């Protein structure tokens, strides 16, 4: 049984963030602790970047244990080392980013309680590193998870808290991400008008961005990523044709798992629009795309599609699809019998 997240923890995170205390480093280094410099910070960043690439290409369950081991064995001792204030801020910010990655990988593996704990730990580290932009993005990640788990009120609150908490240092791309996360939550509640307004704000913000002024870790959030978020939204408010239009513009060509999600949203949107054959064709494209992914979230997208497909009964198109899908590992994982 995978650990469950704490619902109150989402609300507490929003509140603590909005009334965040001043950054605080360890009062004094431990006796005999190692000296830490910017070279150590750069090493952590490079190593985490490598893990992020593995996560993107192969899914969260591929290297999650290695990331956790690296953080606990090699990174954590540096936090109690000896460093200047400038190095300390850079260190805490970088470790927060690495811990956020551990949270995302745990979330992608559907270890939701563990993911939430990593997100909360990353938030504290970002606050201590006085990196308010990163802290806001961590709240955005928590909003993403809350929506996935069906806690839509908490998800919208987290997205709004992220936006409010960095209002003085926000960048257009970050604001676009926060508005998009709020839109995702609102779509799930069925509030189409509020969802559309949030998406419009996200689009407006992204159009005004200057890539040179954005943190490097938010570079992935571009027009294709926003189109993918919009596709999710319009699928969830049962506007299938609009979901199709956005999903068709959501392929990055470089982020395997993100493209898998966008392709499955496109397949589901076609299904809801009554285009059964096209839905099956697109879903097979997604299965080819995700052949190397070890991601419980990917399986959940497929399981939802499988449920929707089953309601239509048996047709020539579904028989052909089932026959071809049976050769794919991710599809096999959606069969309830495979979990027994």
UniProtKB/TrEMBL annotation:
Superkingdom of the source species: Bacteria
Family annotation (InterPro entries): TPR-like_helical_dom_sf
Protein name: Transcriptional regulator
């Amino acid at each position: 049984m995978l650990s469950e997240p704490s619902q109150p923890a989402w609300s507490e995170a929003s509140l603590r963030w909005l009334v965040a205390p001043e950054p605080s480093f360890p009062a004094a280094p431990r006796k005999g602790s190692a000296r830490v410099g910017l070279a150590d910070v750069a090493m952590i960043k490079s190593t985490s970047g490598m893990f992020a690439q593995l996560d993107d290409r192969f899914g969260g369950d591929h290297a999650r244990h290695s990331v956790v081991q690296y953080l606990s064995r090699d990174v954590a001792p540096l936090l109690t080392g000896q460093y200047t204030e400038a190095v300390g801020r850079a260190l805490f910010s970088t470790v927060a980013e690495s811990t956020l990655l551990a949270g995302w990988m745990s979330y992608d593996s559907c270890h939701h309680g563990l993911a939430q704990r990593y997100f909360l730990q990353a938030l504290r580290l970002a606050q201590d590193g006085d990196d308010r932009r990163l802290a806001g993005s961590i709240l955005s990640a928590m909003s993403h998870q809350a929506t996935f788990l069906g806690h839509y009120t908490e998800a919208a609150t987290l997205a709004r808290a992220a936006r409010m908490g960095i209002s003085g240092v926000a960048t257009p791309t970050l604001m676009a991400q926060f508005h998009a996360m709020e839109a995702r939550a609102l779509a799930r509640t069925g509030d189409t008008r509020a969802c559309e307004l949030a998406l419009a704000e996200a689009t407006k913000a992204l159009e005004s961005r200057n890539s040179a002024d954005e943190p490097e870790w938010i570079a992935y959030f571009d027009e294709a990523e926003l189109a993918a978020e919009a596709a999710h939204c319009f699928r969830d408010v049962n506007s299938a044709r609009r979901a199709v239009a956005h999903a068709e513009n959501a392929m990055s060509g470089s982020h395997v798992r993100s493209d898998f999600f966008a392709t499955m949203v496109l397949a589901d949107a076609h299904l809801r629009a009554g285009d059964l054959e096209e839905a099956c064709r697109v879903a097979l494209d997604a299965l080819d795309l995700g052949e190397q992914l070890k991601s419980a979230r990917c399986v959940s997208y497929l399981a939802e599609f499988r449920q929707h497909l089953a309601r239509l009964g048996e047709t020539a198109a579904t028989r052909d699809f089932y026959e071809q899908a049976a050769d794919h590992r991710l599809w096999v994982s959606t069969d309830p019998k495979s979990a027994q």
